[in-house]
Structures are given as C-alpha cells and as structure tokens.
Amino acid sequence: MVKEKLFAKMSRKKIVAGNWKMNLIAQEAIALVEAIAQLKQNNTAVELMVFPPAIYLQALKHTSLKVGAQNFHPAEKGAFTGELSLNQLKDVGASIVLIGHSERRELFLESNSFLKEKVDAAFAHKMPIIFCCGEPLSIREAGTALEFVTLQLTESLFHLSPVQMVDVTIAYEPIWAIGTGKTATVEEAEAMHKGIRAAIEAHYQSSVIADSVSILYGGSCNATNAAELFACPNVDGGLIGGAALDAASFIAIANAF
Ligand code: PGA
Questions:
Q1: What is the pTM assigned to this prediction?
Q2: Is 193 annotated as catalytic?
Q3: 242 lines ligand 1 (CB under 6 A)
C-alpha cells in the first residue's frame, strides 16, 4: 500500500502556501485571491494555496486556488466558545489545515500533546495537514534545535502509520525568523530540513517514506531569498506570511522554483 502510494507520487510536491494570519478584510481578501489566481497563469510546477482568516473561507470558496484554515479545534462539536470544528471549516470550503503554527504554540500555548489530538482529528476527517515545527532563538543558540524539532515531531506526528505519514506536509519555521525580516541561512535551512527527513527515516525505518514528505520553509521567505532557499535539495517550498499579502510577491516566490 505504501509502495503503491509512493509510486503514484513519484516525486515530492512543490508547495507555496500563503498564511494571511489576522490580516485583511473581506474585499481585500477577495481582491488578493483574484489577483493571485490571475497571475499564477499556467504555473503547474508548484501547488499554490492560501490560508485566509476563517471568516472569509466561504467568500473564497470558488477560487481556483486551494484554500485552507489556519487553525481548528480537534473536538467534533460542543462548548468551545470562539473555536471552529473541522466539519464547520469543511462546510465553508477549507480543504487543508495548518497545525502547530508557532504563533499557536507560543501565544495560545498549544502543546505537543494537544497538537497530536489535532493531527488525529484531521486524519479522521481525511483533511490534509501542514504540520508546523520550529525552535525559538534560545534553543537555536543553545545548539539543540534539531533535538527540539525532533521532539515536536515525535510527540505530535510519529504515532501516525507509515501510510498516513506519507500524506503529511511539514513546515519548518524557525521562530526567530518569523515576521522579523531575519531568514535562516541557506545552510541552516537545508541542515534542518535534512535533519527532519533523517528523523522521519529513523523513526519509520524507511528512506522512501522520508523522501516522500514535502518539507516547506517558513520565516521571512520572500521574493528575494526564495530562489536560493528552494534550490536546497530538501526544501520543497515555503509557508509565507508577510510576503503572501501581496499578489505579485507571492507569485514571484512561486516562480522562484
Ligand atoms: P513570515 O511568516 O513569512 O511573515 O515570517 C511566516 C509564517 O509565520 O508562516
């Protein structure tokens, strides 16, 4: 089964995803998605997707771009004031979800075990995921970034079966590089992506599974630095924040492949 799936996949997907965070109002969101759809033309080498604020998903339902949700609650329904379930997000057009963005981890205190619940809920709903991981500056400076990120994967993802793991997309987002204008160097990004792939291989005892997982880079990736980041053998695209709010710069990033 895994082999068949991998054969069908052949090579890793290239993905450029825009995380709009808590930006834009409805008219702006619609205008941005239309501008991106128009500019992307026939670029089929890269899959483009955007993660708008959830209240605008319905309005963007008919775009040709894949549209996802930045966050959700793992419960099916119930007394979770202010939260949204996967059924609700599907209902308004979300076809992929982010899990474990560093802002969810840092500002909303989402733990590895809570994120594991989200991973399981998404798989139960057959909802594709982009699982985010990444270390804060203090950990980077202590020299234990790979161990830190590997623990995030171990505690939230590595309980998945091999067949499920093949369907996961990972985004590595060094927290110190998010929204700061600082980017990991090409060497730092490649080393971490390679390390993440090695951790998958070690856990699943399979280089084929490790090689099938797309690993995106996030953290001040923009039109200027995307080409050199995407040229790294283990970088399969980007999760873009600030630079995704402008159609031309988002498309320039996608065209960097
Ligand atoms: P940034 O954000 O590109 O603005 O650094 C990336 C992200 O948080 O997804």
A1: 0.94
A2: no
A3: yes
The atom number, within ligand 1, closest to the CA of 243 reads 3
Q: What is the pLDDT of residue 7?
A: 44
Hey, what are 159's tokens? 């309980």
Query: What is the arrangement of strands in the sheet containing 97-99, beginning at the earlier edge strand?
Result: 66-67, 47-51, 15-19, 237-240, 215-218, 169-172, 129-133, 97-99
Instruction: State the pLDDT at residue 231.
Output: 96
Residue where the block lists tokens 């065209």: 255
Report whether 217 contacts 239 (CB < 8 A).
Answer: yes
Domain spans in the chain, listed from the N-terminal domain onward: 15-254
Q: Judge if the beta carbon of residue 19 lies within 6 A of ligand 1.
A: yes
Say how many Å lie between the CA of residue 157 and the centre of ligand 1. 22
- Contact 98 CB / ligand 1 (< 6 Å): no
Vertex 159 angle, CA 153 and 164, to 5°? 95
The whole-number pLDDT of residue 11 equals 77
15-254: CATH, from 1.20.140.10, 3.20.20.70, 3.50.50.60, 3.40.718.10: 3.20.20.70
Low-confidence ranges of the chain (pLDDT < 50): 6-10
CA of 153 to the centre of ligand 1 (A): 20
> To which H or E segment does residue 247 belong?
helix 247-254
Alpha helices in 58-144 (DSSP H): 86-91, 102-107, 112-124, 137-142
User: What pLDDT shows up at residue 153?
Assistant: 98
Ligand 1 atom with least separation from CA of 171: 9
Which ligand 1 atom is the nearest neighbour of the CA of 221?
3
159 catalytic residue (yes or no): no
Place of tokens 């076809």: 95
